[in-house]
Design goal:
81 residues, Multidrug-efflux Transporter Regulator, Chain: A, Domain 2, 31% helix, alpha+beta, 3 helices, 3-stranded antiparallel beta sheet, 14% strand, single chain
């Protein structure tokens, strides 16, 4: 890691990745992207790691339905009178 020259704040990372700032925080929460430093509530990221992350493929949209991920059952309640 270098000095602050090589660091990016959350808004910069979001812009570079083409996602929202909340999505960047989700990447951090789920361990897909690791901040280099935390300054209070602010996150700083190493620019090299963000560029490497930007080149990794990320699936778009919802996961496809499969046997391992069946749809939720429909709740049975009162059906008419």
């Amino acid at each position: 890691m270098g000095g602050l020259d090589n660091m990016l704040a959350t808004p910069d990372v979001a812009k570079l990745l083409g996602v929202s700032e909340s999505r960047v925080r989700q990447f951090v929460f789920y361990g897909r992207l690791k901040p280099a430093r935390r300054l209070g509530v602010n996150l700083l990221f190493d620019k090299r790691h963000v560029l490497a992350f930007s080149k990794t493929p990320r699936p778009n949209g919802r996961p496809k339905k499969s046997e391992n991920n069946p749809p939720a059952p429909i709740a049975k309640g009162k059906q008419g009178r």
